[in-house]
Every structure is written in C-alpha cells, then in structure tokens.
Design goal:
This protein has 5 helices and 2 strands; from the N terminus they run αββαααα. By secondary structure, the protein is mainly α. The termini are far apart.
Length: 160
C-alpha cells in the first residue's frame, strides 16, 4: 500500500512520483476551437469608435485637400525650376561652344596674318622706298618713370 501513496490519478492516467516512474504523464493535447471562438469579443462601444475613426468629416477633407494642393504647387514649382536650370545650362553650353569656335577662328586669322607678313619685304620697302634708317645710339633716349608702369603721351619727354 506504500506504493499507492505516491500514485496520483489524472483522469484515466496515473502519475507516479519519484525516480522510478513507470509511465510518464502524457503531454496535454490542445483543444481544437473553431475560428469564430478565437476572435476576441468586440463590444458595441469599440465597434462604434472604429466606425467613427473611419469616417471623414468636412474639416478633415478640407485639411487634406489643402495639403494636397500645397504639395502639388510645390511639385509644379520644383519642376519649373528644374526646367529653367536645364535650359540655362543648355544656353551656357551653346555659348561656350560658340566662344571656342570664335577663338579657333581668331587664332587661325592671327596665324594667317603672321605668316602673310614678310618681314624682309617690309624692311626693303621701308629702307629703299620710304627712306627709313635705323636710329643711332645718340638718338635713342631711355626714359625711366617710377610713378606708373606706362608712359602717357600728354607728358613732356625729358631732355638730356
């Protein structure tokens, strides 16, 4: 009868305590409940609050309309700025291309002028036809002016 004191009965199965367990207690099996029983019970007040939250009243609609209009205006203004910037960049690029073209034409014209001038011919015409001669050393005056880096024509040239 001593063995009977350590045995407890759980329903149809017996549970023996101690280190000499002959039969373990079975794991409890979950009871299957239908889906409707699992849903929490929603009382009338909660349902009414949910329906009220889903309704849109006039101030809410006006506020949302105002927000949408302001957002749309910002988007249109942003797109306008982007297009004006793109147009300005295009104009700048075309002006830069025109400047490069004009520089190339200017360099070509300068090169053609420099190559077309024959310095020997200029010297020959100047000395033979026009009677020009090189200046002697006593005819050359050196002028040093410390006030400015250039000489103005309206000032008198100093005499030595």
């Amino acid at each position: 009868m001593a063995a009977r004191r350590n045995v407890r009965s759980y329903g149809n199965t017996a549970y023996v305590q101690g280190n000499t367990v002959r039969k373990a207690m079975p794991a409890s099996m979950p009871v299957h409940t239908p889906d409707k029983a699992r849903r929490p019970v929603v009382n009338h007040q909660v349902r009414r609050n949910q329906e009220k939250a889903l309704q849109m009243d006039l101030p809410y609609v006006v506020l949302m309309t105002f927000a949408v209009v302001i957002t749309l205006a910002f988007c249109v203004h942003y797109l306008h700025l982007q297009s004006s910037i793109a147009a300005s960049i295009h104009v700048i690029e075309s002006k830069e291309a025109e400047l490069e073209k004009l520089k190339a034409e200017n360099d070509a014209l300068e090169m053609s002028i420099n190559t077309s001038v024959d310095l020997d011919h200029v010297y020959k015409v100047a000395t033979e036809e026009l009677g020009m001669v090189y200046a002697n050393k006593d005819q050359i005056l050196h002028y040093d002016k410390t006030e400015s880096e250039y000489v103005r024509q309206n000032e008198d040239i100093p005499k030595h």
